[in-house]
Amino acid sequence: MTEIEAKKTQESLQDRLAQVVELLQRQRVVEDLTHRQEGHHHDLVENLVHRQNLVELQRKLDDLHSADVAYILEALPLDDRLTVWQLVKAERDGDILLEVSDSVRETLIADMDDHELLAAAKEMDADELADLAPELPRDVVHELMETLDAQQRERVRSALSYDEEQVGALMDFEMVTIREDVSLEVVLRYLRRLKELPGHTDKLFVVDYDGILKGVLPIKRLLVNDPEKKVAEVMADDPVVFHPEEDAYDAAQAFERYDLVSAPVIDKNDRLIGRLTIDEMVDLIREESETEVLNMAGLREEEDIFASVWRSLRNRWAWLAINLITAFVASRVIGLFEGSIEKLVALAALMPIVAGIGGNSGNQTITMIVRAMALDQVSPGNTSRLMRKELAVALINGLVWGGVIGAVAYLLYGSWSLGVVMTAAMTLNLLLAALMGVLIPMTLARLGRDPAMGASVMITAMTDSGGFFIFLGLATIFLL
Predict the structure, then answer these.
(1) Biggest distance spanned by C-alpha atoms of the chain
(2) pTM score
(3) Among 44, 102, 199, 205, which residue carries the largest CB count within 10 Å?
(4) What's the number of CA atoms in the CB half-sphere (13 Å) around residue 452?
(5) What three-state secondary structure class fits 246?
């Protein structure tokens, strides 16, 4: 899809959302007007108008892709969301539940009874059921498992046995397998007999009679080679493979690195047990990116933008409490130098500059380090070199921009010594920011925590307190 086509699609989706919101608003207005009216036909008029709006709204929803309906549901307040959700056709419930965010899915599931949940889940594949099962009521999951055949039940249990960050939790069980001793013509006839190919099928998996993976046959090789050739002559016998216990984020990086669309998953005996597909990897990368952004801001989990006040408070207040403590520490640092500030009022005007620039520089460093760690570019062998590089960048930035603000301080207050102190404080605080920007995520990773967790909050606390102490300390020593 070109950039222009993507823009048109997004604009169209925004238009559809606006139309849905308009219909919901119109429905509320009509209901308010009919409630105020009196007369024999009042109930009949209200019922007809109500149905007309709902039919039009349902028609618009029917025209949308499941992912687009999910987008609209996420963009609506809870009451409107549930109204729209009730208008979605039952056979689409499962697809839409898989598309919405976790927080929104929770509100939709809470609005469904057990019968509706079972009906939605029965339309799903084993890997999709495994994604949804942890959020369903236990009795629904138990009843659902009883309705599956032995193969499906085993696949769901297999997927559920892995951690959500492992390849096994994301693998797809729908795939096409062939033998290496058959001709390409036989493979083509076999594919024509299938009703449809599983999504993202860019290759067929070649296995022996014991299910051991022998290689893969890319579809493009199948199409351009002589039909009389054997699969063994055309297949790739060294494909990129994954094991179910591997880290899913490593697999996602491999998909990006090798431009994969699908890849086999094998057990320790090289037996083919599933496959990974590009759509799962894209979703994983997006979710990881969103999680890192939330963690750096100190948010514990993805939050429904229309969640209740209490739920939003629970998600946000942990790091706000920590931030309050660090702010109090910074205020105490300033309190230590109250006498200096009283004697030289210019210090009060200049000290936020030192702290603010230090915070911005620290956030730049910490963002680069977290990204490098996510890409496995940071190792014990290059940590010291990385530290020296960031300190050198901070030193140069400190001298250059510290010199600029020092010159400004001299022009404003006529004191060259104040300008020198400003330059020195800026340089030292940027060095502190660089040091903490490297150490904070690495320390969190060493402790087994997400390197991005609260990193922005912590670096700001360090550069605020450190910047105030450095600037006011230097000013006290050299200016007073």
Answers:
(1) 94
(2) 0.71
(3) 205
(4) 21
(5) coil
